[in-house]
Amino acid sequence: MRIVLEQQVSLASGKATFDRLRFACGGAVNASRIRLLDDASLAGCGLSRQKVRYVGQLARDVQARRFSVAGLARLSDDEARQQITSRLGLGDWTADIYLMMALGREDILPVGDLALVTGLEELDGVVYRQGKQTTANVTERAEIWRPYRSLGTKLIWANYLDRRRK
To answer: Which residues form the HhH-GPD domain (predicted)?
Structure first.
């Protein structure tokens, strides 16, 4: 849920929304507790109308056993990615961040992450954002990090945040 709340917002904003959601859920964010909240309560936590839909559907899918978060750990990267991206509102960025941060997968490259792309551009003094070529440019640049692209990404993120003193 936290990764969903961090989509397309700053980390601080995502964390603040998650903290309000955790409080509304009585301290533990899980499918059962989210299902107890109505849309107005979720919106009151700071969720956009779209994220209310995403979070609600994810909670329903988990509760109905159409999706198992715990089961993702037993799957390959590609299988886990397919399971995640088949959920409403969860795309490649969400899958990449979950695989990297929650499952500790070592060779994940979130090419759609703005901080990664910006961090690489600042580090290299090169523009990688070139429309449809962005993914190919970032993938080619990070090839040297394989099979530890997750670590390379985290180092770029750390540098990105340090440059902004965050």
So the answer is: 5-161
pLDDT at residue 11 in the model: 87
Instruction: Give the pTM.
Output: 0.92
The DSSP 8-state label assigned to residue 95 in this structure reads H
Question: How confident is residue 32, by pLDDT bands cut at 50, 70 and 90?
Answer: very high
DSSP per-residue letters across 30-96: -HHHHHTS-HHHHHHTT--HHHHHHHHHHHHHHHTTS--TGGGGGS-HHHHHHHHHTSTT--HHHHH
Model confidence at 166, pLDDT cuts 50, 70, 90, reads: confident
Q: Are residues 96 and 119 in the same domain?
A: no
Residues 96, 50 share a domain: yes
